[in-house]
């Protein structure tokens, strides 16, 4: 058996396990991994999108049966995301062929990874803020224009790089609809991701085709990985894993943009340390404000 095929399957198994444990997007991890395994960037994107369409359809089906998605919100996201995602492969083809196309795709993925790393970090802050405020509406009013714009940006990122459906869109939904319940947020994101990823996958298959020596190891490796990761999720240190993933995405993004690996590592570690101190300061601030609010409520309560 070809060594590359085995390495792709093992990478998919590892990444699938991480995705199952943390819920963090597989495209942000798998596409760069394929590129570093010397798979052509356009082939990596095309086959990762086809594999993702399978995984996300299964997850969306589970949430659909349980009634958690906000279908109207998912529809407005799809209005923006589907056409932009479908256009991605044709934009890449319009750049040209050979080294110009490969360099364009690497730069696009590098930028997308930095955006994904930033949005994952922002997601932790937004989640902390909303957990403290404890405001949850079953169905908040839909804001069509900004929702379509979010879908368009996310769709363009996915169409060009296969990165963004589970990171950029999720965090922006948290900002646009802070009262949306967590289970409905996840369900909505998964449901809207199905037509988004399918549109991107179809366009890339039309332009690039499917490489079965890449696609099959992806599916064979990631499927048991996601299952195992889901089973052990409650036993693993989520904070450590998530911070490690953010660091990895940041370093990989810088490397694809041409930054020296050692310098990228140094920048990533410095950013992680600074982010850790900032996170602790925010937690103390929110904890202090929570205590102050409780004291005010006690003081104002009837005696």
Protein topology:
Elements: H1 3-22, H2 27-36, H3 41-66, H4 71-95, H5 98-133, H6 144-161, H7 168-176, H8 182-207, H9 212-232, H10 238-256, H11 261-300
Description:
- The chain has 303 residues and is an all-alpha fold.
- The chain is 83% helix and 0% strand.
- The chain is built from 11 helices and no strands.
- Helix 1 packs parallel to helix 9 and helix 10 (238-256) crosses helix 11 (261-300).
- Residues 294-303 have low confidence and may be disordered.
- The protein is globular.
- It has one domain (3-291).
- The longest helix has 40 residues, at 261-300.
State the main characteristics.
303 residues, mainly alpha, 11 helices, globular
What would a concise description of this structure say?
This protein has 303 residues and is an all-alpha fold. The chain has helices at 3-22, 27-36, 41-66, 71-95, 98-133, 144-161, 168-176, 182-207, 212-232, 238-256, 261-300.
